[in-house]
Amino acid sequence: MSELYSIVIPVYNSTKSLEELVEQIKDVFENQLKLDYEIIFVDDHSPNPQSWETLKQIRQKYEKVTIVQLMRNFGKEGALLAGFSLAKGDYIITMDDDLQHSPYDIPKMIEKKDHDVVIVAFKKKQHTFMQRLTSEMRSWVEIKYMRRPRHIKMTPFKMIRRSVVEQILSIRSAYPFITGYLYYITQDLVNVWGTHYPRKYDKSNFNIRRRWLVFLNLLINNTPFLLKAMINIGFIITILSFITGIIFIIRRILGLVSLPGWTSIIVLLTFLSGVIILFLGIIGEYLIRILNNVENKPAFVIKQKI
Predict the structure, then answer these.
(1) φ, ψ (nearest 5 deg) of residue 254
(2) How many Å apart are CA 250 and CA 246, to the nearest integer?
(3) Cα–Cα distance between 16 and 1 in angstroms, integer?
(4) pTM for the complete prediction?
(5) Across the beta sheet with 91-94, what order do the strands follow?
(6) Closest C-alpha to 98, from 34, 172, 13
(7) What are 149-195's pLDDT values in tens digits?
(8) Is 305 within a domain?
């Protein structure tokens, strides 16, 4: 029995690139690899109604295609999880819907299928300066706080072993971050080199606002970065408050401060401010752990599947 490959593709407002993408995937698997496959398009509640209509037309034309529409916009991570929950493949491939990821790089991934995760890396990305900047910021956080191996370059174009996907689906969170789950579940990640193509149709829907929201999700829900920063800042302020207090006490002794009560007020304010920030950071550390344990909102809700 041959292996089955599931290609999961989130869709948001795209129309023109979708059938061309299906044709390229079909050519790779049927003409080059001679392997069994399925394509799962997940429409993340696109504001453009033509996205779903286009997907329905594609479904009628191609038997290997499954299409899913979500109840509301859950974001790319939720759309991917919806696709994972329906995928039947031994390996699950994720890629974008805009043809910047080429299906003709898939054979390189399959050559490395003995690894848990195979990621297509790009020597040159067709991105703007702001996109590159946010990617670098995200990479720094992932390496420092999320066990990402320094030699691994992460992109959305990847192939994941089914056993790893099953572990990802077992994690319950309203704010999923699949890349972070990969680092937690396995360290068996490898890169292959591919080509990142210019966007062929329309403009990217992944604007600065959406990138910022994803980055906040990474910081707040998947790393202790902000909480540790609060603790460190509180500790620094506490030390500075002691130094400031000593300075004002010396000034008082030397008679350089004439206003009664000034020294004690300044010392108390600076000291207590530092202590309060320090304690808020510690309390926040406990709260985030409690919230992570009790949070049970769904990461996605499927409206219809064809």
Answers:
(1) -80, -5
(2) 6
(3) 35
(4) 0.75
(5) 189-194, 117-122, 158-161, 91-94, 4-11, 36-43, 65-70, 302-305
(6) 13
(7) 778 888 889 999 999 999 999 988 777 888 888 888 998 999 999 88
(8) no
Whether residue 129 is found in the same domain as residue 249: no
Residues 156 and 238 in one domain: no
Strands 65-70 and 302-305, how do they pair?
A: antiparallel
| Model confidence pLDDT, tens digit, residues 64-79 | 999 999 998 888 888 9
Same domain, 45 and 88: yes
What's phi and psi for 121, nearest 5 deg?
-100, 155
Taken as a whole, the chain contains a residue count of: 306
183 assigned to some structural domain: yes
**Same domain for 181 and 265:** no
Q: How many domains does the chain have?
A: 2
Domain extent for 277:
225-294
Q: Is residue 22 part of a domain?
A: yes
CA distances from 288 to 140, 219, 225, 300 (A): 22, 12, 12, 22
Residue whose pair of structure tokens reads 């064809």 in the numeric block: 306
The answer as to whether 306 is a domain residue is: no
Task: Tell me which of 206, 223, 240 is where a domain ends.
Answer: 223
User: How many other CB atoms are found less than 10 A from the CB of residue 303?
Assistant: 12
- Each residue of 86-143: pLDDT tens digit? 999 999 999 988 888 999 999 999 999 999 999 998 887 655 556 666 666 666 666 6
What residue spans of the chain are helical by DSSP H? 18-26, 49-61, 75-86, 106-111, 129-145, 162-170, 178-185, 208-222, 225-253, 262-294
Same domain, 131 and 266: no
